[in-house]
Amino acid sequence: MKKGDLLFQNAVVVSSKSSIPADILVRDGKIEALLAPGSGCEAAEVIDVGGRYVMPGCVDGHTHMMDPGYTDREEFTTGTMAAAVGGITTAIDHHRTLPAVYSVEPLLEKITYLLDKSCVDFGLKGGISPENTAELQAMWDAGITGFKTFTCNLHGVKAMHTAFLMRSFTEVARMDGTVLIHCEDDGICQYEEDTLRAAGRTDYHSQWEWRSKLAERVAVETVIEIAKETGCRVNIAHVSQPELLRLLHQAREEGYRTYAESCPHYFNLTVEDLEKKGPWVKFTPPMNTAEKVEELWKLFDLGYVTTIGSDHCPYPKEQKLPGEKNIWDAPNGIPGVETSLRLMLNGVSQKKTTLNRIVECMCENPAKLYGVFPKKGHIAVGADADLVLLDMDKEEVISNDRIVSKCKWSPFDGKTVKGAPAAVYLRGKLVAKDGKFVGQVGYGQFVHRIKPCI
Fold first, then answer.
1. Is the preceding omega at residue 374 within 30 degrees of 0, hence cis?
2. pLDDT tens digit string along 384-410?
3. Chain mean position to CA 91
């Protein structure tokens, strides 16, 4: 008879393919066994789940924790506390900190700096710039989960035009790496900005016209073609258009490694929300029309979305507030790491999709794409015991008063959602319960990439 540290009895274990009743035995932070319910297995602590769903801890492949260097916006501790509360047990952080991670030296410094600050396990990305192709291999060898780059000038990052993309994608393909890329055509965005500013436009809707759907389409189409030519594994960040999900799916069907990330805000906000809330829902690419949002849900449920990332990009209220008078004066970006799972679970409650699809896009696929599977992303013998116990009956109103992230606000303030993480375990330790962080700062570990397997 197997023995363990912790036994979850009467669980329904959710994967991308099934939802199966089981007892989950945990020992030394890993899943020791999956047993038939009522197995009589012994453990130091026994928790009766009562027939509720248990899913793997989410792997968020797209966060901006902004630490070190920009801690007025977020600190790694507060950001990963928010992740834990949101059911995210592995957060993969963006390269754009200070110093920015464009070579191995700042990468190693960042790993050391974060080790005693994280409340969940974490991976890191390296940045790709027009000048640093020779630096990519050393960062990859140091264990990063992939690279991030942009086709447009944004957040102080230089646009990667086609020659730069060809060069860097060829190098990343050679090392069998992964690129997460922000796709908006720089020339189109600049033209539209010049036109709108010349017309004196400061209204909220001008954000939608500036970061246009045309700009996103042109950039995505270009990146797909370059990915096909170079053989690079590419995940298109925050896809906002059903048309682009179809293009990426078609390329995958042809055998190319062209994947689609989207974000919960594209499934829960429309352009009408932008016209009402302005800077508080200002991000790029912007959201879509209500009709397109419904289409996004349908394609999500059909498997056209590979990963869901939060694109957690918080700003203090005082930096967003000027945008209420002039939308140009607010930065692009919203917090999201602690609401992502709840927003997608609400889609399950509304019968728009299934828990299996949520697990596929928020757990399994990101773990595979960013090379941390089979350690992360699924409930299986030998995997880390990163577990989220769900309460699919819990209905709550998202409120700024309960936001854990340092910014203390959410674009979904006042929204009612149904379905929530009731308890979150990281390597067998309880880190969040009923919307509150109960873990230990510094318990989170750096997750060295194993190998992408998708």
1. yes
2. 999 999 999 999 999 999 999 999 999
3. 8
Q: What is the pLDDT of residues 209-262, one digit of tens each?
A: 999 999 999 999 999 999 999 999 999 999 999 999 999 999 999 999 999 999
**40-46 long-range Cβ contacts below 8 angstroms, 24+ apart:** 40/1, 41/1, 41/2, 41/3, 41/4, 41/7, 42/1, 42/3, 42/4, 42/7, 43/3, 43/4, 43/5, 43/6, 43/7, 44/4, 44/5, 44/6, 45/5, 45/6, 45/7, 46/6, 46/7, 46/9
CB proximity list for 108: less than 8 A, separation 6 or greater? 142
Q: What percent of the chain has pLDDT over 90?
A: 97
Q: Which residues are within 8 A (CB) of 398 and not within 5 positions of it... i.e. 6 or more apart?
A: 339, 342, 410, 412, 413, 414, 415, 416, 417
**Local structure of 93: helix, strand or coil:** strand
HSE, CB side, 13 Å, CA atoms: give it for residue 448: 4
Residue 58 near residue 89 (C-beta atoms within 8 A): yes
Q: Are 54 and 389 in contact (CB under 8 A)?
A: yes
Among 209, 217, 233, which residue's Cα sits nearest to residue 328? 209
126 by Cβ neighbours in 10 Å (0-12 / 13-18 / 19+) ranks as buried
Nearest to 286 by CA among 338, 388, 215, 357: 215
222 is written with which tokens? 């270009």
